[in-house]
Amino acid sequence: MQNGRPAAYITGVGVVSPIGIGRKRFWSSLLANESGAGPITLFDPEDFEVRIAAECSDFDANDYMDRKLAARTDRFAQMALASAKLALEDAGAWDELNHRPERVGLILGSGIGGVMSMETTQATIDSKGPARVNPFSVTKIMPNSAAAHIAIQLGVQGPSSTGALACSCGTDMMGLGFDLIRRGDADVVLCGASEATITPVIVAGFIAMRAMSRRNDDPEGACRPYDADHNGFLIGEGSAVVILESAESVERRGAEPYAKMTGVGRTTDAYNITDPDPKGLGVLRAMQLAVKSARLEGEQIGYINPHGTGTVAGDGPESRAMAEINPNARVSATKSTLGHSLGASGAIETTICALAIKERTIPPMRNLSELADDCAELDYIVNEPRDAPDLEAALCANLGVGGHNAAVVLERA
Fold it and tell me: In the chain, what are the domains?
């Protein structure tokens, strides 16, 4: 409890992203407004209408695990394990895990799981027959494989869970980790999400939905949240894990938190399987619930990192919902830089909020030249970071295909 309010403290962050791996590289690249967009290289996209993505091109699984383990895990699980190790190192929390493994929890989500392995397994069946399928195919495909490998490799023995709530998954996982801390079920929680879905089936599926930008000749300008020329999202990949700790654990270890999590809100649109509620009521309620559970008022939210995918259906309702929370809030939609990593995006964006609070600096977004007619006038931070010495509270909110909404509030620790 902090001033009578339950809180979970973020003491470490680990990120695998298209603009860098590890906290320092990720943050410096984000502030420099570097783009992670480029041509797809993870498969041959020649016959696809969309041939661009934001890939984690610097990621090499062998830097974080031996070759044998890497061969037995899907890319999304490899990135998750790397993020978990980076987060523990950043928090200096290895001793907690080694000495009290039963008090360390694990919440690790993914919107889809090992789809890359699913597709390669099917290709093996088609070309060589079922007898040639890899014996580790099932354990590579299953959505909980990332959490399982993290627990096995690192020795986590506390409560664990995997969630798959589409694009709101990462934010929802933060809420579940927060729940473990405030209930006293764990002292430390490795909490995050991972996604590696730049694959033929997923890309073709989103193309068929007409959800993706087709700016193949301008990858860095493809994702344009709230811009008059927005026409779809840019698919990305990545992973983020944060170390959540109780106040008692922070005090015992003498840890220095980046921020504290004080509020969570979750809602469902019950409207449409692909499109968000055109009135934005679901995401608005999620943000309102998060602010209320943090015992704050909307005007105290100084920064919002929104879903901000650059879709016509989503941008307008979401921006108007943000205006209802705080019309003076500073906003940066960082998917314009990172692409949309689906289930992992909320975990990455919660990390961004924590670093923004700690560094008193708001990172920029890209590609907002002229505000779309149906989007609210807000203080969008474009192209250049902004110093924010007064930043005390930030909000991360995400929408998921199927109508799921999740939001978390972070405050200065």
Answer: 8-253 (3.40.47.10), 264-411 (3.40.47.10)
